Amino acid sequence: MNNKDVGFIVSIVPFREHDAMVHFLGYEYGLIRMILPGYYRAKSKQGRLGLEFSKVQYRFNFQEHKLNRIIGGESINAYLQVRQNLDWLMYMSLVSELTVRCFDFDSHHLFYQWFENCIESNNLEVHCIKYLAFIIQTQGFTPDVEGCVMCGSTNVNAFSIEHGGYVCATHAQHTIKTTKSLMIALLGIFSNRDVDAYLETINRYDLLKILVEYLEFHGDYKFNSWKLISDV
Question: Which domain of life is it from (predicted)?
Fold first, then answer.
């Protein structure tokens, strides 16, 4: 019996001689690895089913804990109107790597919704910020933004990645002072306030940098896609 699922091609890499291995984020099955046979053959007709960062429907015979082979399917949305944009491709690479490295099967519908929100967003940078905050909270190391994480003082002037939250002047001796706009943004994000409009007014790259480095430090990750973004 064929199974069907609608979802997103999160990543695709060569597998053996002519096949491809796809990380597929499905609405029903979550994040699974699948084999797309013959994708790299000359004149392959599978091109529409292997376009990274696209929405597809796959047919397959699902077997748990095994590599599932894609039998067929159809492309739903290739996002052709934005995929020529280099910034979009770089930030979708970050979204892809975050999804593959940090995916939690217990929250797979939330990960699906966040990936969909990112890929369909008119402001991918803002959604990357919110996605990172979601992952940080899901993994259980939400920073303390209510006061100094060391002494509880409300007179804070920096965000410490190492200590996991705001710090006061006394405990920020080796921390570069964080701008007021970034402090406000971090407070809003991690106290679940609506910060979309505010994020449009600040330096979002600096905020992304803090969040990525925080997740890398506390989750013991290293995200190659972020290195690419930061090097451009």
Answer: Bacteria
pLDDT surpassing 70 at residue 165:
yes
| CA end-to-end span of the chain | 48
> Residues 94, 158, 143, 154: is their CA dihedral positive or negative?
negative
Tell how many helices (H) and how many strands (E) occur in the chain.
Answer: 7, 7
Four-way CATH pick for 86-231: 3.40.50, 1.20.1440, 3.30.420, 1.10.10: 1.20.1440
Q: What is the pLDDT of residues 83-115, one digit of tens each?
A: 999 999 999 999 999 999 999 999 999 999 999
Residue-wise pLDDT for 33-69, tens only, equals 999 998 888 877 777 899 999 999 999 999 888 889 9
The pTM of this model reads 0.94
Closest CA to 148 of 173, 135, 165, 127: 165
Domain boundaries along the sequence of the chain: 3-77, 86-231
Distance in angstroms (rounded) separating the CA atoms of residues 232 and 229: 6
Helix (H, G, I), strand (E, B) or coil at 155: coil
CB 5 within 8 A of CB 27: yes
User: Is-contact 228 208, C-beta < 8 A?
Assistant: no
3-class secondary structure, 60:
strand
Backbone angles phi, psi at 74, to 5 degrees: -150, 150
